[in-house]
Automatic annotation (TrEMBL):
GO terms for molecular function: 4 iron, 4 sulfur cluster binding; 4-hydroxy-3-methylbut-2-enyl diphosphate reductase activity; metal ion binding. Residues 397-435 are annotated as: Disordered. It comes from Actinophytocola oryzae. One of its GO terms (biological process) is isopentenyl diphosphate biosynthetic process, methylerythritol 4-phosphate pathway. Pfam families: LYTB. Keywords: 4Fe-4S, Iron, Iron-sulfur, Metal-binding. It comes from the Bacteria. Its cofactor is [4Fe-4S] cluster. This is 4-hydroxy-3-methylbut-2-enyl diphosphate reductase.
Length: 435
């Protein structure tokens, strides 16, 4: 590894740095600086203004008036130079000190490593299908309203908004004759009836799996059961399920929640694991329900999407020294992934909104890094992380796909007679517009 001090004719102001995304070196020629964003992020966190330059020139010429370029480089297996270059103004010692610190961190982070990328997308079949249907409705022209919440990658939701999709939670705001799309997690019957009454054109993007589970909840309510929904209260489908029988539905997520339920032991009780909730996290809750209400009845249909994704996170967390969740730290999905990884023993988990947020200090001991996108991941973040790591030593990249047991059934989790379980329905059919 080479550390050098060169000069550049590119102007640099005191208090700022110019970080090379590519560097023209007097001996090595073109130096690839794929970790420019990581270096820029480290300097910005030290309070320094950062500009980037796609092809910063550098020279061995000694001239006290010219900006200084500090360069660190190594040669990859093909003999190509990789590294980074940062220019600071002549005589700007405070900035130069910060650059020297980042250079040391960068050098410590340099090592051979492996990157494991989660192969599974952050959304399920049902959510992707709903996005497709909103897009198709927009392409048909006219105003398109989406009822409730669109659960999909932030970038996809933003794209639909830009194209004119409007999210509403009150059908009175939808003009007569306009198109309203029901989301993947479905709507309550009252909303459906109101849409028909108002003559709206309905595109029903309810996922068939979610529709099955909602239908079961309606059957439970019709036979007079108290329904215990196992899931996160802030998940869209949980509010839809609760809305079917608001007075007879309770939401629980933990064993403690079950202990707090005010249901008479003689009352008929049924439970549903909500889509979006991993089934292994529901196991203890189900056991406590069974212990408290021995005649409690279970659902037949189950959605395995969250379970499969949790299995991917578990596998990644176990296989790596450092897990990066691409997304924003105010995103429920990103936080849930990080919590899951910590729960299975991975202590070094970080949510990374931009490549700039990747800290050099996390990397020296990380010989295997895992990365998985959350719903809020900006397009290109996972690739950007891979690119940045490729500048920090020889990198091999592998994709981890879910290791899913073939056709798990509801009985794998409820311990009932397998013959009573219907086969799982995958949402491959597309709905027809109705008005
Ligand atoms: S039921 Fe499952 S597959 Fe369908 S939208 Fe919900 S989480 Fe996705």
């Amino acid at each position: 590894m080479e550390h050098e001090r060169l000069t550049t004719t590119t102007p640099v102001n005191p208090g700022e740095v110019v970080v090379a995304q590519g560097l023209s070196h007097p001996v090595l020629g073109s130096v690839r600086c794929a970790s420019a964003a990581v270096v820029g992020g480290a300097l910005a966190r030290r309070g320094i203004r950062v500009r980037y330059h796609r092809a910063l020139n550098s020279s061995a010429r000694v001239d006290q008036r010219l900006p200084v370029v500090r360069v660190t480089s190594w040669l990859d297996a093909t003999g190509r130079a990789r590294g980074f270059g940062v220019a600071s103004a002549a005589g700007d010692t405070a900035t130069a000190t910060a650059v020297a610190e980042v250079m040391r961190e960068w050098s410590s982070a340099l090592r051979t490593r492996r990157l494991l990328v989660a192969g599974a997308p952050p959304t399920c079949h049902g959510a992707r299908r709903a996005v497709r249907l909103v897009g198709r409705a927009l392409a048909g022209g006219g105003a398109v309203y989406v009822w409730g919440r669109m659960v999909a990658e932030s970038a996809a939701v933003e794209d639909l908004r830009r194209r004119g999709a409007m999210v509403v939670t009150d059908l009175d705001l939808v003009p007569c004759g306009a198109t309203v799309v029901f989301p993947a997690h479905g709507v309550e019957p009252a909303v459906r009836a109101e849409a028909v009454l108002r003559g709206l054109t309905v595109v029903d993007a309810t996922c068939p799996l979610a529709a099955d589970i909602l239908a079961e909840a309606r059957r439970f309510a019709a036979r007079g059961d108290t329904i215990v929904v196992i899931g996160r209260a802030d998940h869209a489908v949980v509010s839809t399920l609760t809305g079917l029988a608001p007075h007879d539905t309770r939401v629980v997520q933990t064993v403690d929640d079950v202990l707090r339920l005010d249901i008479d032991v003689a009352d008929p009780v049924s439970y549903l694991v909500a889509p979006g909730f991993p089934l292994d996290e529901a196991a203890d809750v189900i056991a406590m329900l069974r212990a408290t209400w021995p005649t409690v009845r279970a659902q037949h249909g189950l959605c395995h999407a969250a379970t499969e994704r949790a299995e991917v996170v578990d596998g990644l967390a176990a296989a790596c020294d450092l897990l990066l969740v691409a997304g924003s730290d105010d995103c429920r999905d990103a936080v849930t992934i990080a919590e899951r990884a910590r729960a299975v023993g991975q202590a070094d988990v970080h949510v990374v909104a931009r490549v700039e947020d990747l800290r050099l200090a996390w990397l020296p001991r990380a010989s295997t890094v895992g990365v998985t996108p959350a719903l809020s991941a900006a397009p290109g973040t996972v690739d950007g992380i891979a690119e940045a790591l490729s500048a920090l030593g020889p990198l091999s990249v592998a994709h981890r796909d879910p290791d899913i047991p073939s056709q798990a059934t509801a009985d794998d989790y409820h311990g009932r007679d397998a013959r009573s379980v219907p086969s799982e329905v995958h949402p491959t059919t597309e709905p027809v517009m109705t008005s």
